Amino acid sequence: MNTDNPSYCVDKPIFLVGAERSGTTVLRLMLDHHPQIAWCYEFEYVVDQISDNGDFPQLEAYYEWLETHRIFQSTGFEIDRSLSYPQLANSFLCQRCQRLDRTGKPLVGATVHRHFDRLLQIWPNARFIHVPYDQAMLSYPQTTPYSLPDPKLMLF
User: Fold this and answer.
1) DSSP class of residue 117?
2) Which of 44, 62, 108, 125 could be bridged to 57 by S-S, CB 3.0 to 4.6 A?
3) How far is CA 3 from the centre of its chain?
4) Do residues 37 and 107 make contact, with C-beta atoms less than 8 angstroms apart?
5) Is 140 helix (H, G, I), strand (E, B) or coil?
6) Which positions of the chain have pLDDT values less than 50?
């Protein structure tokens, strides 16, 4: 990670990808507590506005959209209007690292539930952790409120 260049300080982020309700939140919580990993939570605001054919959004429209995006607003990230779209997206990860700089976390990642393929347009060297969705986990009959599914069906 190069924190001297704020426009592109994260070269190889880690993305936790998987369907909603697949266990990504539990794994994200574990990763966020790792002493070397800084984690951005839900990161869909970076990929949702990229078109299906890969065009980045018009920046002025994107800025307005972010102003009303509840999850983005909760991050407290600043929008640097001098950056291109890929640089701006990367700056969000950089800001997460800089907030945790005093803890020395050299790796950064984020959780994305949809449009994972679009991440590679911004971070061609990104690394991915994929959590598969298993319908059997949700439909397994529960005998008590505290019973666990058969261990053969467990994902981790």
Assistant:
1) G
2) 62
3) 19
4) yes
5) coil
6) 1-7, 140-156
Whether residue 100 contacts residue 38, with contact meaning beta carbons closer than 8 Å, is answered with yes
**CA-wise closest residue to 24 among 148, 138, 131:** 131
DSSP states along 20-85: TTSSHHHHHHHHHTSTTEEEEEE-HHHHTTS-TT-PPPPHHHHHHHHHT-HHHHHHT----TTS-H
The verdict on pTM exceeding 0.85 is no
Give me the amino acid identity at 139: S
Residues 6+ away with beta carbon under 8 Å from 63: 79, 81
108, 1 Cβ separation under 8 angstroms = yes
Strand arrangement, sheet containing 14-18:
37-42, 107-112, 14-18, 127-131
Is residue 29 within 8 A of residue 123, CB to CB? The reply is no
Contacts of 150 (CB under 8 A, 6+ apart): 140
pLDDT given for residue 16 in this prediction: 82
